[in-house]
Write a structure and sequence with these properties.
The structure is a homodimer. Helix content of chain A is about 35%, strand content about 20%. Chain A is of the alpha/beta class. Chain A folds into two domains: about 140 residues, Peroxisomal Thiolase, Chain A, domain 1, CATH 3.40.47.10; about 230 residues, Thiolase/Chalcone synthase (Peroxisomal Thiolase, Chain A, domain 1). In chain A, helix 1 packs across helix 2 and helix 3 crosses helix 13. At the A-B interface, helix 2, strand 3, helix 3, strand 8 and helix 9 of A face helix 2, strand 3, helix 3, strand 8 and helix 9 of B.
């Protein structure tokens, strides 16, 4: 069966985009992807939209976007798995090419978070955990990740400073990414002094809601070689799940879905954790990045805190992670995030990242978590 | 590439299911599908959930269902395209098997409509049309389909009696389907005397909201032959789109997305409209079934009214349609409907439909519309 390549990429600025509707954001990313790949829209066979519908006032989002991109009468549909919706769209588009049904597919990850008030978003997000057993007792996303952090500290001696160092790194790179929401560096002292959210997590341990859209154009191998002189190949895909209820999980120091999804992707692509030159991981909270180092095999279990302290996830370290700023500094438009991670990896593998470039990056990984780890999607990209 | 077969099917009763949550409905259908196919749950590689998330109070529906079905850590994700969400799930599962990633996939179409009040549902549904240009002026689903009906009457002389005859047929068969919401026959006189909704559509021209879930278990050909002694093959798939805004469509007497999707499916399966022995079409309103006869090629453009008047869509006619009662009598739990149509076609091709059986049915079709035709999915099933 055919290999699948990325032939065009586009990315809006992430942030409060009161200047644009969600379909306008999608178009902005799509137009940039067409121009990036020098792809004529007539070659697009279908689109897949990754988004969480309930944040938008317009229903039937895939149809609205398809019309706005002038892609009717071609197929489209939407995928939803909370904050991993964009990666589910990539997976679906990849499957449709691999299955021989389509040759060229546009993937759009998009979310307009700011149509709702913060209170409305909190109400919606609270119900992304287990409504029956957990959110009824007041658990929220920061609360869940605070429990993960407390347990990680208790079991492995991870420190608050180590948590803050993740934020410091991601702000450092976000300050150098013109698509990022937060473009300023911070210090450990500043992170520690920020307001508490859910102990031990402070404001600077949490990513921020944002509006944004990202587009990837995927193509079957022969078409990819026609359409691009530097396609990047999507060679490994993993997707796994775990219980909604964290009470039903064996432990709270990692996400079993991430480890499972990574193994699937490594197996499919025939690579190991040590082969990954650059990664985008789902740092919705700083502790999430530390757990990701361990779940993905970049370091041993319990050593994630030391890993960031040693700067092993900086460029020049053993496993550069979130050198685009991550969710933390770039912002987190939930349906767009998985596609945004892929966008950065493609740019890294093309060598287009300037001062943020990981030297000689051949293999890149994205790790996109839905909810509190009830889903995880891991994708592996490779250059020729 | 492998053929994909249906090896197990399950279907809840449709109706007001105040006795069950949406995940319980999903389990009810899933359990029946496992038993139907004598399939051990250990062979299921993944699930795909078709549903419209915003009708439910629990967010992250795919994760909730995956946990409730005890399918963690296997992959799942949700597809959404309004009332065609179930068919998008079938398409996605089919792609994942065809692409060689999974061998056996459970598809669940489900919807709990009655968690919301009728007023809340109307508010949501109004926004499934084009919010920017149309729903702002008060257009609702009955209003859209009333415009289609008025135009069809004007252009082709279609009569109110012919509209009612669609309802009479579908109630006739619904009365003989133990999964249906409305199990009583009606007359043209009763349909004509029912309260007006949007001229010329009366209450009996409109399908009803319902709760329900349906499960199909799909498998790659070699596994399908192991798991079932009578697999039914999903050999043709079509998916097409049209503008959200009906103002931008060339005419209002049919759905261009349906004609396009049908052509794709016919081409993939190598069959023609005349080969279809039995069909399930998206009769959200009576006029929609008449338009479907024409869009699918069961009769010529403009002849849909005469087609039902001649009983050509009854068992014994040239193209039996909705002999399970259709959305009209069976009820319309929006995410479940596309999978419910497939369930009926599989039973027909197996010859299991008793007094509703179409004799010697070899090839069956489903036609599932999203919104007001901004999406249409057509699937073709064949027995050995």
């Amino acid at each position: 069966m055919t290999r699948v390549g990325v032939v065009g990429i586009g990315h809006t600025v992430f942030g409060r985009r009161s200047d644009a509707t969600v379909q306008e954001l999608a178009f902005e990313a799509y137009r940039e992807a067409l121009a990036d790949g020098d792809v004529d829209p007539s070659v697009i066979d279908a689109s897949v939209i990754g988004s969480v519908p309930e944040y938008h006032k317009q229903r039937s989002l895939a149809g609205v976007i398809q019309e706005y991109l002038d892609l009717n009468p071609r197929p489209t549909w939407l995928t939803e798995v909370a904050c991993a919706s964009g990666s589910a769209a990539i997976r679906t588009a990849w499957l449709s090419i691999r299955a021989g049904v389509h040759d060229v597919v546009a993937v759009i990850g998009c979310q307009k978070m700011t149509e709702l008030t913060t209170a409305e978003i909190l109400a919606l997000m609270g119900r992304v955990g287990d409504v029956q057993w957990e959110s009824v007792f007041g658990t929220t996303f920061p609360g869940y990740y605070a429990m993960f952090a407390q347990r990680h500290k208790h079991e492995f001696g991870t420190t608050n400073d180590q948590l803050s160092l993740v934020a410091v790194k991601n702000h450092y790179y976000g300050a150098r990414n013109d698509k990022a929401l937060f473009r300023k560096e911070i210090t450990v002292e500043k992170a520690q002094a920020s307001d508490p959210v859910a102990s031990p997590l402070n404001v600077y341990d949490c990513c921020a809601n944002a509006d944004g859209a990202v587009c990837l154009i995927l193509a079957a191998e022969d078409r990819a070689r026609d359409l691009s002189d530097r396609p990047v190949w999507l060679d490994g895909l993993g997707c796994a799940t775990a219980s909604m209820s964290v009470l039903r999980r064996p432990d709270l120091t990692g996400l079993p879905s991430a480890a499972d999804a990574a193994q699937q992707a490594y197996d499919m692509a025939g690579v190991a954790a040590a082969d990954i030159d650059v990664a985008g991981v789902h740092d919705c909270f700083t502790i999430a990045e530390i757990m990701a180092y361990e779940d993905l095999g970049f370091c041993a279990k319990g050593e994630g805190g030391a890993f960031i302290q040693d700067k092993a996830s900086y460029i020049g370290g053993s496993s550069p992670v979130n050198v685009d700023g991550g969710l933390k500094a770039k912002g987190h438009p939930i349906g767009a995030t998985g596609v945004s991670q892929a966008y950065e990896i493609v740019r890294q593998l093309r060598g287009d990242c300037g001062e943020r470039q990981v030297p000689d990056a051949d293999v890149g990984l994205t790790h996109n978590v839905g909810g509190i780890g009830q889903y995880c999607f891991v994708n592996l990209f490779r250059r020729d």
